[in-house]
Amino acid sequence: MNYRAYIFKLFFRILLLVSIILALTYAIYKDKTAYTVIIGIALFYLLINTYTFIKRRFVAMDDFFEAVKYRDFSRWFPEDRGPKDIRFLYTGFNEINRTIKEINSQNQAQYVYLQKILEMVDIGIIAYNLESGDVLWSNDSFGDILDVPSFKNIRFVERRKPELFNTVFETYHREPNSISIALQNESIKILISDTVFQVDEDAFKLIVIQNIDDTLNKNESESWKKLLSVMTHEIMNSIAPISSLADTLQKNLEVAINKPEESHLELEDLNSGIKTIKNRSEGLLKFAKTYRSLSKVTHLNLHRAKVSELLNNIQLLMEPSIKAKNINIQFNVSDPKLELDIDTHLIEQVLINLILNAVDACKSDDNAEIKVLASQNSNRNIVIKVYDNGSGIPQDILENIFVPFFTSKATGSGIGLSLCKQIMLLHKGRILVKSIEGEGSVFSLVF
């Protein structure tokens, strides 16, 4: 709107100038001296007024562009005085200054934020001018890894440690490269990579280094701790039901020996129990060997197994100890002819894990119940489901339960379910979960 007003005022002045010039021409032509002088004065005044009118805007814009040239965005243009069109122009200049100051402030905050992050990481980072050697930016980790004090030019390192300078600064490492460097009385291995980038007319080199020795030692220590935790967890999961079944068989044998007339021990039951212990023990040994190289397994000991026999073995192994905790457990196979090509020992380990988790989830309920059901779905996939009516899994952690070493239990190791998932993936199957907090959960093994 102000732009239109400015155009209108300028157009009006031009029209007035043309009219006065025509009037002056007419007065001169008619030889009217008095009118000529008056009109000439009016023309001179109008020319000065028009010049001032136009110049005022150009001066304002020139001031603004001068401020931009020298990046002086702190200047404030008066919005409350002067002609309306100039005040409008000043308002626009001030708005541009405010916007640029906000952008600069945000950029500065992001720069400080990024700088703090780079200073906190244990990876050494340096950027320097390729021609002059002046350091553009470097974090403390770079000097700590190379065992050199803070410096402003890389020639400092050249004078102090020529060999290190040649390896790190003079040699190009386009791809991450593992090298050994000598520091005082020891040699360390670092991972180094670099890149060259251009800023205006200057070329800079960015170098990133990481102390591999420290990282490997730390990761190795953590891996050993986690491995021991995993093995202990899985072995205890298998030993507990084996011990319970062996204890039951021992008590029955003692009764049969001491009070043969009261004993109803069936040799077939005794044989089945011992066979179950033997099979589970072999499975435990095989599991220990398999887990040790689980990430490298490319071949499973697959064979055709009846699902009913698989669940019968689990029932014989787990049922006594579970019922002792006043938890009702049921096993059911929809079709006795269902068969799977599986590594039986590993799938048994998966089912033991899921059943023990179900026991833990519903052990405090008065009407605790666990169901292990096997059937074939509409896609002709065989599905084994483990139901429980326990506490359920909170929705906020449900998506993390298969993440290795994630656990919501005070004494859990967080590897049971991740291991179950890994075993199912090896079988080219899936493990799914549905849970409602306070109502229970169902885990499905889909083959």
From TrEMBL:
> A single Pfam family, by name?
HATPase_c
Which keywords describe this protein according to UniProt? Kinase, Membrane, Phosphoprotein, Transferase, Transmembrane, Transmembrane helix
Q: What class of enzyme is it?
A: transferase
**What highest taxon heads this organism's lineage?**
Bacteria
Quickly give the catalysed reaction: ATP + protein L-histidine = ADP + protein N-phospho-L-histidine
**Keyword Transmembrane helix annotated:** yes
Alphabetical list of InterPro entries matching this protein: HATPase_C_sf, HATPase_dom, His_kinase_dom, Sig_transdc_His_kin-like_C
A molecular function (GO) held by this record is: kinase activity
Q: Does the keyword Electron transport apply?
A: no
Limits of the Histidine kinase domain: 230-447
Which EC number(s) does the record attach to this protein? 2.7.13.3
Chain ranges passing through the membrane = 7-29, 35-54
Protein name per Swiss-Prot or TrEMBL:
histidine kinase
Q: Which organism is it from?
A: Psychroserpens ponticola
